[in-house]
Structures are given as C-alpha cells and as structure tokens.
Amino acid sequence: MEQKQQQKMHIMMRKKMMGFKIASNRSRLAFGILLAFFIVMNFWMISRIQDSGPVKGLKLRFMKSNSSKISVPEELRKIGKGKKPQKTAYARLLYKAAHALAEYKSTEPKDLWLEPYHRETMVTLWLLQMAVCNIVAVARLLNATLVIPSFIQFGDIYQEDYFIDYLKPDIRIVKELPKELQSLDLEAIGSVVTDADIGKEAKPSFYLKHILPLLMKNRVVHFVGFGNRLASDPIPYHLQRLRCRCNFHALRFTPKIQATAALLVKRMRQNARHAGSLDEYLVGPFAKRKGKIKKEFRYLGLHLRFEIDMVAHSLCDFGGGEEEKKELEAYREVHFPGLVELKNTTKLTALTSLFPNMVTKENLLSSSEIKPFLNFSSQLAALDFIACTAADVFAMTDSGSQLSSLVSGYRVYYGGGKMPTIRPNKRRLADIFMKNNTIEWKVFETRIRKAVRQNKRIFARPVGRSVYRYPRCSECMCNTQEATLPFRPR
C-alpha cells in the first residue's frame, strides 16, 4: 500500500513539474513575440521619420551644456513675423476719437470736474507706508520701543524727526538700537520674525501670545516685511486710530521731495498762483505762492505703471545676464509685441496725438532737477504720488496698484468730497471694447461716462477692510459722511 501511494505521489509531482515547464515556455514565447513586435514597430517609425525629412521652416540646434547663450534662428524669426493682426478696430476708434475732438464745439459739461458721487471708494495702500503704520501699531500693542525702520534709507524719504515727534504721545521711537544690543546676532538668537511666521489675518492676541514672550526674553525683535499684517478686524479702536494717524499725518516727505513735487504741480497748473486744496498736506511750506492770481488751470493725473512686485507676477521681467536679457527681449518683441513694455514715447504717439498736453515728470523737470532722484525708485514714486494726489481728477488703470490705492485714500481723507477719482470697471470696459467694430463714438463716450458714474458706491469702511483703503470710519475721521476734516488736525 505504501509503495502504491509513493508511486501516485511521484506521478503527481511529475505532472506538476511538466505544468510549470509548459507555463514557463508559454510566458517566454509571449515575451519573445512582444519584443519582436516592439523592434519591428521601432524600425518602422524610424524609417517614417527619416522619409518625412526635417520640419519645414524650423531648425533645432543642440548646444553645449555649459553654454548659457540662447540663440534665435532666422527661420524662427520668420515664423514669428508672419501676418500681423489687423488693426482696423483700433484705427477706427482712434479716427472717431480724433474726429470728435476736432469737431466738438460745445462747452464743457457742468459736472465734468465734479466728483462722480459724494462718497468716494478706496483701494489698497502703498506697501512701504502700510508696513510702517502696521509696525507702529504693533509697538503700541506690545508697549515696546520702535527703532526707525532700516529699509531703503527711511530718512531719505520721510522726515524722521517729525515722525518721532508726532507719535511721541503714543510710542517711544529711537533711531538705532542701544549699544548693548547692536552686537547681537538676531537670527542666531531667534529674534527675526518674517511674514511666513505670522498669518496674514493674525489677531492682536497672536502677538501678545507669541511675539511678546520672545521680546521679553531677547529684549529685541526684528520684523522683516510686515506689509499686510495686523490689518484684519477685529482690531482695538485705539490701534486703528493710531494707524490712521500714522498714515495720514506722521509720515511726511523730506523737503527735497516736497520742493521738487511742488515744482511739478506748479508747472502742471501753468504757473498758477493759487494752491490746490491738498497741496499744503503734500508739500508743506512749498505750497505757498506769491503774485497775482492767474487763470485757473486744471489737470488730470493718470497712473499707468506697475510696481516691481506686480511686474514679477505679470511676467514682464526676467533674470539672467545682460546678454541673455537682450536676447530674450529681442525674442519677445518679435513674438509677443503686445506684451512689450512701453520704453519710449513713440509707442504713445496715438495717445499724445489726441491729448497734446499730456506730459510726464521727465518732461516737466529739467535734467538737473530730476537727476538727484534717478537712482532712487522710491523717491521717484513719491514724486508720482504727490503729482497724482494733487490733481483735480485722478484716473487709475489698475485698481489693485498700491500707489493708486494710496492716492485714492489721501484724496478722500483730505479732499472733502471734492477730489474725484476715476476707477474704471474692467468688466464693463471689456464689454464695450468688444463692440468697437460697430459702435459710434458718441455711443462709446456715453457708455464710458455711464460706466464711471455707476461704479459701486461705498459710504463707510466695510467690516474686515483696511482702514487705509477706506478711511471713512469713526477711527479715522470725525465726520464720515462728508469727510471734510481729519479727526486730529495738527
């Protein structure tokens, strides 16, 4: 019996081994067939590519890995030139605008220079000024001494002594750290706080819980950035009040900037002897003028520029060496002509032909007058700010621009409801421009005026919005309805 069982088991084992061999042979055969099919397909595709030849009109050139140079073949340039898009719609609107201006004989509408509505809307604040005002509020919250901000030579833009004196009742401000703290490595002891360490909507309790113990331990805390911090409700009344005072009163430009800006505004008004309603707040003693009162000239301030951070977001700038920048710029001019920044006045010929009195600060100031500011972008921006803020009407092209936002805030705070700001509705403008092939100039003009007048009206600062953007609130103004006086004249 045992021998029979052993024989049966031996037979079963042999059958299993044969089954494994058969399965193994089948898998090998399938793999061989698949490999052969792949080789055949590979040879077939290579032969097709070789038969078709190179792509017409385009050559690719391999370069050494250690080369940083980017070349643009002539064939690629020819492809980019191609057929230029037709400009019939643009030319038609330009012709109609010029024709309307040439034949327009009626007098100016009575409401042309009036504010579109009594309660003006605001936009956001200039990053630099906002950071200073925010850190002043934090110093008051933590009952700490504030050191004059060290970025971009604070004293070259603002009057340091006036800043310290004006805020003396609220916080103590010094120009430098005490000697015993100057030798400390703030980063090594953990006293450097960046924007990444603080949430954008962090409440005052966060600073009391996390920043105050660090300050008590190390005796000094260095904030880096701080542009959009401590800006969300709820914020104590006294802190909002302090931020508003700092923004609209404590920060005054240096006499160097005020004198040049006053010259700009004076020349914009054709040397008129009267001062504008905001000139005293913007340029201080340089607003006073002597002589007989001449004919009143009004001007419109138009802000067209992006700030540096907006340029990065919109991909208008690129890095690399000087040679690489030139080649990339040449490539962009060929293939993306509509995205190239305006670097010379020839690109603005159409606009200047319609408005021959359009000028820039470079036109109004002599080379010797503007030379001290050329290497300082922040000081040039300060001149733009004063010239736009003092304008009888201010128009912005980008409502999210920080400089445009700060200008709007000043005009509401000091303007008494008589300083109009034009903030176009981009959606409505896009809808109007889509129909510019058939629209008549009169209809176009009417729709634009209607779009400006029907902008959203904001009567007071909404909850959660910045006090810089919407100063019409009890923390910032005595009279929020008419906005005629600041809450703390000085």
TrEMBL record:
InterPro entries: FucosylTrfase_pln, GDP-Fuc_O-FucTrfase, GT106_glycosyltransferase. GO terms for molecular function: glycosyltransferase activity. The keyword Glycosyltransferase applies. Coiled coil: none annotated. It holds the Pfam family O-FucT. GO terms for cellular component: membrane. Keywords: Carbohydrate metabolism, Fucose metabolism, Glycoprotein, Glycosyltransferase, Membrane, Transferase, Transmembrane, Transmembrane helix. Signal peptide: none annotated. Pathway: Glycan metabolism. It is a single-pass membrane protein. It is found in: Membrane. GO terms for biological process: fucose metabolic process. Belongs to the glycosyltransferase GT106 family. PANTHER family: O-FUCOSYLTRANSFERASE 2 (PTHR31933:SF9), O-FUCOSYLTRANSFERASE 2-RELATED (PTHR31933). This is O-fucosyltransferase family protein.
